[in-house]
Specification:
about 350 residues; alpha/beta; 8-stranded parallel beta barrel
């Protein structure tokens, strides 16, 4: 089937970025439910991801390619992304209570750089709202579901554990794995929680909570993953690698968006606050991945995210030590064809 996304992208890029974002999720879900999403994606109809299985964190992933958190924040289109071919979908970030996020405008395209700046601020429907959405969107999805959790904006950093534990308990029954997001630049003070000591404390407390929850959920074991920023110093990454190794975290995602603007400094939107993603992040995120891989227990898997814009980018992350890869901005610029390209490459 022909790739219709370039035409759709022209229409979407003529719209405000955030309106286009929500319109895309709505159209994907509607198209899936009506059975014609494959005509847009160019794939054979199936709610199930393309099969090229790999076991990571004790879970059988249908393939190595996943959707990064941030695109489907509310969990409304999980099944639709399965049709696109994703082996895993990570939704969120979700917080204990609903919150609207930061003031608009808060999402910007840097087309010349194949990049995006966002300062969304964990806008989400809260745990209860997300779980309600999943009742519809997940019911025929056979891939792996990750749920990305964070703290509410008005929760002081000293009380951060309460929010992460509440989220973990709330989503435990629905998630195949849970990612603790300490690395978004769009919630004031959140990145201050990325210290080795804080991460070690968070992982230990989540593991203790998991020990309590497992018997309540039929001995279901939910892996715990930490997502880190690309703007950490080499010493900080080495410190985190030691903390991850000592605490035996189940997995790490490298990386979140960057606050560095060097690669887009000439762009008129470069001064917009928020996290930069897309092609300018590609090399930096892969470097962080390789450093963490060299310093961390080799038995702890890494999920490579940040600037995966092609099959070559995905392979570079696998070669650097990633077990899985995730895309977000690449999907915005390339569409479903990117997923197929990565699947052929890795």
């Amino acid at each position: 089937m022909p790739d219709l996304y370039p035409l759709a992208r022209k229409l979407l890029f003529a719209m405000d970025a955030e309106k286009a974002h929500h319109a895309t999720l709505s159209m994907m879900s509607t198209a899936k439910n009506c059975g014609f999403l494959p005509f847009v994606t160019g794939s054979s109809y199936s709610p199930n991801p393309v099969e090229s299985p790999i076991e990571v964190m004790g879970l059988k992933f249908p393939n190595r390619v996943g959707l990064a958190a941030g695109l489907d924040k509310a969990g409304t289109a999980v099944g639709a992304f399965g049709v696109v071919g994703f082996g895993h979908v990570e939704i969120g970030t979700v917080t204990p209570r609903p919150q609207p996020g930061n003031d608009k405008p808060r999402l910007f395209r840097l087309k010349e750089h194949h990049a995006i700046i966002n300062r969304m601020g964990f806008n989400n429907p809260g745990i209860d709202g997300m779980l309600k959405n999943l009742e519809q969107s997940k019911q025929d999805f056979s891939g792996i579901l990750g749920i990305n959790i964070g703290k509410n904006k008005d929760t002081p950093n000293e009380d951060y554990l309460n929010d992460y534990l509440a989220c973990f308990e709330g989503v435990y029954g629905a998630a195949d794995y849970v990612t603790a997001n300490l690395s978004s630049p769009n919630t004031a003070g959140l990145r201050d929680l990325q210290s080795a000591d804080t991460c070690r404390e968070l992982i230990t407390r989540l593991q203790q909570k998991r020990d309590e929850l497992e018997p309540e959920h039929g001995n279901k074991h939910v892996p715990i993953v930490i997502k880190i920023a690309p703007d950490l110093s080499e010493d900080a990454i080495k410190g985190l690698a030691a903390a991850f190794s000592e605490s035996k975290v189940d997995g790490v995602i490298t990386t979140n968006t960057t606050i560095d603007r060097e690669a887009v400094s000439v762009h008129e939107l470069a001064s917009e606050a928020g996290g930069l993603s897309g092609a300018p992040l590609t090399a930096k995120a892969t470097e962080i991945l390789a450093l963490l891989r060299s310093e961390m227990d080799p038995n702890i898997p890494i999920i490579g995210s940040g600037g995966v814009m092609s099959g070559t980018d995905a392979k570079a992350k696998i070669d650097a030590g990633a077990s899985l890869v995730q895309v977000y901005s690449g999907l915005i610029y390339r569409g479903p064809a990117l997923v197929k390209e990565i699947l052929k490459t890795v």
